[in-house]
Write a structure and sequence with these properties.
Elements lengths: L1 E4 L2 E4 L4 E2 H7 L7 E5 L2 E3 L4 E2 L4 E6 L5
Parallel strand pairs: 1-7
Antiparallel strand pairs: 1-2, 3-6, 4-5, 4-7
């Protein structure tokens, strides 16, 4: 699978959950949202080898 976040890109092998994929690329799962084909994914969604995922940073403020 291909994962993109800002100007970085990673290739991961096999099937895994969104949460595991985010952890494997060194990011904190609570700080990003995963999007596939324009749809928001939950952290327990299983990703397939041919998926392309975009990670969007979560920003909060007051």
């Amino acid at each position: 699978m291909r994962i993109k976040h800002r100007d970085k890109e990673w290739e991961l092998e096999g099937r895994m959950t969104v949460r595991r994929a985010v952890e494997k690329v060194g990011l904190i799962p609570e700080t990003v949202l995963a999007v596939r084909d324009g749809r928001l994914l939950t952290e327990d969604t299983v990703l397939e080898a041919d998926d392309e995922i975009k990670l969007v940073s979560v920003i909060s403020g007051g």
